[in-house]
Amino acid sequence: MKELEKVLKALANKRRLAILKHLKYNREASVGEIARSINLSFKATSKHLAILTALDIIEKEQRSLQMFYAISKNQKSIVRHLFSIL
User: Fold this and answer.
1) Cα→Cα distances 9→6, 20, 22, 81, Å
2) Which of 1, 30, 45, 57 is the most exposed place for a label (fewest CB within 10 A)?
3) What is the 3-state secondary structure (H, E, C) of 18-86?
4) Which residues of 66-86 are buried (b: 16+ CB within 10 A; e: fewer)?
5) HSE (CB half, 13 Å, CA atoms) of 24?
6) What is this structure's pTM?
């Protein structure tokens, strides 16, 4: 139950939902691309991405000096449902 609460709290944020929507339509993106897309600073976007990554909602991959994010392949059922309505 505690895990579900954490996921719901993470998803109850308009910036994080905007990040997820961006990743849904773009498959993957760098921090800078996401930040520009949702009109947020690089630092603030990184913090939101860290929260989503910690809960396995998204996954990250470092390539050279850039970090790229994508929707996790191991999503929880509630996250899969959210993506279906985003």
Assistant:
1) 5, 14, 19, 16
2) 1
3) HHHHHHHHHCEEEHHHHHHHHCCCHHHHHHHHHHHHHCCCEEEEEECCEEEEEECCCCCHHHHHHHHHC
4) eebbebbeebeeebeebeeee
5) 16
6) 0.86
- Return phi, psi of residue 79, to 5°: -70, -40
Distances (CA, A) of 67 to 4, 7, 26, 64: 27, 23, 15, 8
Amino acid letter at 38? I
The span from the CA of 37 to the CA of 35, in Å, is 5
3-state class (DSSP) for residue 13: coil
**SS3 at position 1:** coil
